[in-house]
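A student in our group prepared the protein record below, which I am reviewing. I have pasted the whole thing underneath without changing anything:
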Amino acid sequence: MYQEIYNFLNECEQNESIKNISFGIVNENEVLYQMNKKPYQIDQPRIMFSITKSFTGLAIGMLLDDGLINLDDKVSKYFKDYFPKILNENLEKMTIRHLLSMSSGLKYENFKDALVDDDFIKTFFSREFVNKPGSKYLYSTRTSHILSALVRITTGKTLQVFLDERLFKPLEITNYFWEETPEGNSYGGSGLAITHDAMAKLGILLLNDGVYKGKRIVSKAFLDEATKSQVIKQDSVGTEASKSRGISYGYQFHIVNENEYAADGMFGQVIYVFKDLKIAIILTSQTTDFVKIYALIQKHFRNFTLSNDINKDQLDLYVKTLTYEKESSNVVFKHDLTFKLDKNSLKVNSVRVNKDFIEFTHDDESVDRLNLNERIGYLRFIRTINYERQKVFLTVLASSEDKLVIELTHLESPFISQFIFEKRESESIFRFEPIITFYLDKFEQPIRNH
């Protein structure tokens, strides 16, 4: 077992398109092995992006188990008030099953719209539905969010409150958070942040067909349907990616083949389940090529055994060499500069920098200060749709009397960003460089020197 883990981790390290943060392997009873790279902490909740969808899907399974819904119920039964005045035939035919299988008939998905949307439900139903429901796959975070809204409509509870009672508490998951959309629902397609340990517990639940420590959480009947092919990803057929990722989708799970399926999220968050081997692979990442990471998981674990060619101590010694921590330079920057910023993606209206700290004043006038002689700080930054104060790890990449380069590793997400300050002869420059992120655009702001 440890040899297989070593081989997998080592090959990941040799691949520049794979940047794992944590790794784990579980069977149906326990965690067999796990590791985590500094400066990240294994008990720190991090945004899971689209793994959220699989949690949302499980909630729908629980509603089905409770007899509150039928998968062939028309969506109009629950959301008629949100439908446009001129009804679309495809929209009228849409069922809960179509939402679960990403085959609603929706024409397109624009993920960035979420940043400016004030009602996710209304916006979804105002979109074009050009395909007959069930006939075509279209991956859509907004579609999953409608399932979150369905939970609230049928139970009177947000998805977070519902799953806290039905899933998180039974699995002893307490350290998590869930973003809300403007209309007050838990963000059903992307907003959940959990720890590596919580991901492992979900893996154990799935390997036990919906049972955790003897308690039934969701029915085996639902999981059997959720983890088999419900729709073909028509655009994946015949592609190179299909060799490792498959061409099928279930109910909020990606189906690789009849024995393997996965929950995954942007930048390389993965729960990969081997039904026949009774193991699941858990990964979090800064950024990862899904085709390559799936191929490596399959290469190293499809023939998994508990036999050991190396011992655990040898593997642990290797793992201790894996880190994202960088040495931080001494600050010799000699200026005290304040930049008044134009409207920007950071939602920051001014930045002050000197040899001791960087101070950010946000659009809402809240202030965050990062001390340059401390490695850990807090900064308001985007999660998936909301800007919230989050833990960061600070590295001074470079410092001279006239230039300062700071890198922030955002510990509650995969994001990495850089802030550059430079005093020139006639002007001073502030530059924001997103290294790993989405949504946020780089920008530069000069000020004239007096």
Remarks:
- The domain at 337-448 is CATH 2.40.128 (Lipocalin).
- The chain has 13 helices and 23 strands.
- Residues 51-65 form the longest helix (15 residues).
- The mean pLDDT is 94.
